[in-house]
Amino acid sequence: MLVTLVGNCCTWTKNLATSYIINDDIILDVPQGSFKTLYNDYCLDNVKYILISHFHSDHFADLHLLVDVLARQDKKYVIVAPKGCRERLYSLFNAFDVPHLKNYVEEKFEIKECENGKTFNLGKYKIRSYKMTHGSLDAYGYVIDDDTIKVGFSGDSCMCNSLIKIIKKSKAVFIDTSNIQKNLKHLTIDEVKTLSNEYKDVSFYPVHLSTLTLPLIKESGLNETYQGQVIEIN
Q1: Which pLDDT belongs to residue 23?
Q2: 154 Cβ partners below 8 Å, 6+ apart?
Q3: Most buried of 14, 49, 76, 81 (most Cβ within 10 A)?
Q4: Could you count the other beta carbons within 10 Å of the beta carbon of residue 173?
Q5: Longest dimension (CA), the chain
Q6: Can you give the pTM of this predicted structure?
């Protein structure tokens, strides 16, 4: 499986917020500012599926732009997201005065709603969604299985049972590493390091990095990640 880090950081850095292209047909999260990079630096012709972890702007805010461009192709798409995605999208359309995009969604985009432990069979993929703990928000992580390997994506989350389930099922995991102090929304760099020491057969890739954690990754011994990086997992 090829995982391209379109962005690897959070809102409060100079770097692009976390977004991925998996192989060439899945996009996971479309944060604010990501569309320009997706449109100019990557070929979107093979995209079939869009996964959204939650509805914070640094994971969702450019989805209306992506919908606009993809809908011009003669194909249909699937969006997997927390409940209320359609309403959120329509709010974006109204806010940016592009209400006609609603017609594209109705015609070309099937929206599937996440539930904890729910599996989505999409082409060659089996994608399982896991309810994460990110404050009180309805947030999800995913395990993507392409019949050869399983790769996990935590989304934004603090330590929780679902996170451990994702790690145990995955060969590699892209994991929120936002903080240096424990909290109810994000993982700390020390927590991620402890997990990587405990689950030595799993490759850990810290993402959603902040101005606090970004400079500490190398000295922590964790894998370094960067915007535009392509990681092959086999």
Answers
A1: 98
A2: 132, 141, 163, 166, 173, 174, 175, 176, 187
A3: 81
A4: 27
A5: 50
A6: 0.97
In degrees rounded to 5, what are phi and psi of residue 120? -110, 125
Q: Do 123 and 143 meet the contact criterion of CB atoms below 8 Å apart?
A: no
Q: What stretch of H or E contains 147?
A: none
How many C-beta neighbours within 10 Å does residue 62 have? 24
Do 87 and 64 meet the contact criterion of CB atoms below 8 Å apart? no
Beta bridge partner(s), residue 150: 145
DSSP 3-state assignment of 16? Answer: coil
Residue that the structure tokens 């990557």 belong to: 42
Encode burial over 6-41: b for 16+ CB neighbours within 10 A, e otherwise.
bbbbbbebebbbbbbbbeebbbbbbbbbbbebbeee
Characterize the bridge pairing of strands 49-51 and 77-81.
parallel
User: What whole-number distance in Å separates Cα of residue 195 and Cα of residue 152?
Assistant: 14
Letter for the amino acid at 19?
S
DSSP state of 184: S
Nearest to 26 by CA among 123, 169, 168, 104: 123
- Ranges under pLDDT 70 in the chain: none
What's the order of all strands across the beta sheet hosting 172-176? Answer: 119-122, 125-134, 137-145, 150-153, 172-176, 203-207
* Each residue's pLDDT tens digit, 80-104: 999 999 999 999 999 999 999 999 9
Structural domain boundaries in the chain: 2-232
